[in-house]
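Hi, here's the filled form for the chain we discussed.

Project: internal
Contact: R.S.
Residues: 282
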Amino acid sequence: MKWKGRRESRNIEDRRGRSNTRAVGGIGGFGLVAVLVVGYFLGIDVTPLLQDQGGGQRAPATEMTAADKAAGQFVSVTLADTEDVWAQIFKDQLGRSYTPATLVLFKGATSSPCGGASGASGPFYCPGDNKAYLDTDFFVTLEQQLGAKGDFAAAYVVAHEIAHHVQNELGILSRANEVRAQVSQAESNAISVRIELQADCLAGIWARAAQKKFGSIDRGDLEEAVNAARKIGDDTLQRNAGQYPNPHSFTHGTSEQRSRWFVTGYQSGKLGSCDTFSINQL
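And the returned structure, exactly as it came back:
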């Protein structure tokens, strides 16, 4: 992926290298679920984080390494690409303007309206403040523990979280979450899968548009993103955790589904192709 020397986004909130308030007011709701699920699947010990439910303890400031700085620049350029692409798509396909998201970079732990976050919780989007949260050390986990190598695999992660912001902008996320709050856990999980697969599809749309607009995608980049989508499918994560895949517990979709919906978005480039809510067979 050609990213060095290109425009960086101003919508970056970099909390790395400063003292962080760890889980102010405790980890609640989405944050707690994210920590438990991702920690379980990736084999990360999240006990220290879960024990810190008291009152906003200050964590020591973390040192910014050269790798941290490079990762921050990479994310900033990728975020800028999403801003330009989605502004154009909203104008061309919807006749409306796009309001960019802010992306929070943190290292170790931080807080959000959706609950506390740590490296164990993985990247996530919080509709409470229209911000995506990312510990750039997740890219190391993605490559070394999950086997998803390459800068475009990392770009796919950013694009997927920003796709949740696109869903929020379109009113899809709020409607889906309203329904999820009124149904059983299994039904809620099924809706979550549709949300996540749509985000994968939207990430594919972004990749196609970015290639056309910036010529930034190198040979092999698309395969890196597809491989990343496969590596973080629910069935693959559960198998890697030594568990037998349980479809009723899936919240993001299978490896096959995630990679296929990304490719669907990439091949079509149209928002209408990402309607995961009106079809029976995902």
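Let me know if anything looks off before we file it.
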